[in-house]
Automatic annotation (TrEMBL):
<feature type="domain" description="Transposase IS116/IS110/IS902 C-terminal">
    <location>
        <begin position="192"/>
        <end position="278"/>
    </location>
</feature>
<dbReference type="GO" id="GO:0006313">
    <property type="term" value="P:DNA transposition"/>
</dbReference>
<keyword id="KW-0175">Coiled coil</keyword>
<keyword id="KW-0472">Membrane</keyword>
<dbReference type="GO" id="GO:0004803">
    <property type="term" value="F:transposase activity"/>
</dbReference>
<dbReference type="InterPro" id="IPR002525">
    <property type="entry name" value="Transp_IS110-like_N"/>
</dbReference>
<dbReference type="Pfam" id="PF01548">
    <property type="entry name" value="DEDD_Tnp_IS110"/>
</dbReference>
<dbReference type="Pfam" id="PF02371">
    <property type="entry name" value="Transposase_20"/>
</dbReference>
<keyword id="KW-1133">Transmembrane helix</keyword>
<feature type="transmembrane region" description="Helical">
    <location>
        <begin position="199"/>
        <end position="218"/>
    </location>
</feature>
<keyword id="KW-0812">Transmembrane</keyword>
<dbReference type="InterPro" id="IPR047650">
    <property type="entry name" value="Transpos_IS110"/>
</dbReference>
<protein>
    <submittedName>
        <fullName>IS110 family transposase</fullName>
    </submittedName>
</protein>
<feature type="coiled-coil region">
    <location>
        <begin position="123"/>
        <end position="178"/>
    </location>
</feature>
<dbReference type="InterPro" id="IPR003346">
    <property type="entry name" value="Transposase_20"/>
</dbReference>
<dbReference type="GO" id="GO:0003677">
    <property type="term" value="F:DNA binding"/>
</dbReference>
<feature type="domain" description="Transposase IS110-like N-terminal">
    <location>
        <begin position="4"/>
        <end position="146"/>
    </location>
</feature>
């Protein structure tokens, strides 16, 4: 397999092709015409493209590569950054980055990117817009609150802010309804399974479906927990260092926060989560550590009900079959 490294920006992307003992680079426009020109130079039987996850700028290229049948991998930028440090690279240009990404692909042979369904792509866009609208609403409300104590108030400014708040609230409600409609139409079964778990509501269930591509991206719950960023880190070296540290925090911050909030409810009403919380608190663990453990248990429960296609039964205890039988 021949690996092509790609460094993407908004308007262009640089591709590094193997050439002799090194690489040659070529720049293409990051639009449909430029991407088709790039694809015309590839052979789907031998070429594998590797690129960093750079927001939305890489997805048109990924989409057209997928439609053409050419393998492509999307790499966490942190991996490329750390690889650059390992290789002691002192020069950072688009061409050098493309060569570095190609070398990373050649050494580590990353798995091909699993392109999400169109429904998941639409849901991700709606989720992004909804999050931004909520941030704007909070900022506008804070601005209005800061103006109200002033002795001399500009009524036009206050009215403008109030109208903006009303508009944002309507748009947020509309976008939430749109997301619920898509999830109900396409992922109705998964939504019902997830919301059968005490502690997981429609909003969190929808976020989990989006993050997992309808639970198709991960093979087990541990992979999902690591992706979300709620797995504890461990530092061990010789006899002097042996630390079980904080969570890794590598994933979606919003989803991680939603799980943490849901864990509070689950620790009170979900029997397995409540037992987990009380057990850890009884061992002297802090409330925050115990709550993170509950959030992890919620993830495991969510993964279990979807993969088994069975609704959650509160207090259910699995029994292993007798090996003697």
């Amino acid at each position: 397999m021949t690996y092509i490294g790609i460094d993407i920006s908004k308007a262009t992307f640089v591709a590094a092709f193997p050439h002799g003992k090194g690489y040659r680079t070529e720049t293409f426009q990051n639009n449909a015409k430029g991407i088709r020109k790039f694809i015309s130079k590839l052979d789907h039987a031998i070429h594998h493209c590797v690129m960093e996850a750079t927001g939305n700028y890489c997805f048109l290229l990924l989409y057209l590569l997928d439609k053409t049948g050419i393998r492509a991998s999307l790499i966490n930028p942190k991996k490329i950054k750390n690889y650059s440090r390992v290789m002691m690279s002192v020069t950072k240009t688009d061409s050098k980055d493309a060569c570095l990404i190609a070398d990373f692909g050649e050494r580590f042979k990353p798995e091909p990117y699993k392109f999400p369904s169109e429904q998941i792509m639409l849901l991700k866009q709606k989720k992004t817009v909804l999050r931004q609208l909520q941030k704007q609403l909070t900022a506008t409300k804070n601005l209005l609150s800061s103006l109200e104590p002033l002795p001399v108030k500009d009524k036009k400014c206050l009215n403008s802010l109030k109208q903006t708040i009303t508009f944002l609230e309507k748009q947020i409600k509309y976008m939430q309804q749109e997301m619920e409609t898509v999830v109900t139409d396409v992922f109705d079964k998964q939504l019902k399974l997830l919301t059968s778990i005490k502690g997981i509501g429609v909003t969190l269930a929808t976020a989990l479906i989006i993050a997992t591509g309808g639970f198709t991206y991960f093979e087990n719950a541990k992979q999902l927990s690591r992706f979300i960023g709620i797995c504890p880190t461990i530092e061990q070296s010789g006899t002097s260092i042996n630390i079980r540290g904080h969570i890794n925090r590598n994933g979606d911050e919003t989803l991680r926060s939603m799980l943490y909030v849901a864990a509070w409810s689950a620790s009170q009403h979900n029997k397995a989560c409540k037992e987990c919380y009380q057990r850890l608190r009884g061992k002297g663990k802090s409330g925050k550590v115990a709550m993170i453990a509950v959030a992890n248990k919620l993830v495991r429960q969510a993964f279990a009900v979807v993969t088994s296609n069975k609704s959650y039964i509160d207090g259910f205890v699995s029994t292993k079959p007798d090996s003697a039988l």
